[in-house]
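Page 47, continued from p. 46.
Same chain as before, 423 aa.
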Amino acid sequence: MEINSSMAIGYVMKKLVEEGTTDFDKIAGVLHELKVMQNKEGLFSYDRFTEKGSDSHATIVNPFDGNKSECILWCLNHYLGLNRNPRVIAKTKEIVDTFGTGCGTSAMSGGMSSLHKSIETRIATMLGKERAILFPTGYSANLGAISAIPGKNDIILFDHEAHASIIDGCRLSGKQWLAFHHNDVANLESKLKRLQGKHENILVVVESAYSMSGDLCPLKEIVALKEKYKFYLYVDEAHSFGLYGEKGRGYCHQQGVIDKVDFIMSTLSKATASIGGFVATKEKYCTLLQFYANAYLFQACLSPADAAAVLASLDEIETDPRLLPGLHEKSAYFRGRLTGLGFDLGSSQSPIVPIYVSDLKTLFAFGKGLYAKGIFSVSVAYPAVKITEGRLRFILNASHTQAQIDKTLEVLAETGRAHGLIP
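Result:
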């Protein structure tokens, strides 16, 4: 097929398969050719990296030409800025001296330490659940739990915009699964009504805050359906744990439905500035996951340093009363200014603020223009989102200063007008 630099690599891959190209070597060759083409025009942002780690400001290195740029970063999920918190860093260093570096094996094979047990106990207490079980990553938590929970005669219903880890968990389960329209309670109810009595159990999987659109789940309305229909509810709080609710207990807690949610999952790589994931639920379900979730059974535990960073971050979240309100104030200010300028933000409500750009050529050029002026985020295109719903995401962090926010707004306004995105 004929390619040009304004095409999304995921879209090209899709078209190649549709045209009957199945040889991986040929597909790889076309994709790499497109990548090189985009690099030459400064449009390929995915391989760029920070010189000294993530922060609200960093030196970005372009490996294609070796050039470096000083940029304000808007693509990081360290919502509370705790990855650079001096107390979190100090406690992590202290733990490494005592516990060493890696754990050496999985939890079931002797890799678990008192640090891991402390995280599980603390999270279970925070969320009012009997137990929490810790996974090495958030991705593997969803992959492991969702593939392990459903029985032979069960079905999984999930939101159409669910994260790839949820979809992969459904696929790995080998059970029946079906998507419902994004945040559409009526569509979910129609499926629940139709499926009642046809399956032994129904597992409904949603996210409290959606990573690509930044909108929030209608949790109260979904929980209300449990009064009419029999199903288990699994909520992914990856983008809300630590950010919502009393002392960061999450969006389920803020909405007052936490006791009605059967499984609460979250990553530990975002608000808690580390790595890992957990599922909080009944004790007996955690036992099931210990033996049925291969992602738990056969993966090494997260390192002592990672575990220490989680615990130290939880300390900060629970003891600093300004941390959460400060983030949401910045988020509201940023979103309000962008809306006033005329940008299309969709239905974003959380600290994830997408700017929608349907034309891919414009999207790539917009991102390139921002980067040239010291503003860095990455283009989000198919297959991460629909072909016509490309966007740049701006993720608010507590570490973003007012000066950085205002500078970004100034550049966005100038660049947005230049590309016809706003009046």
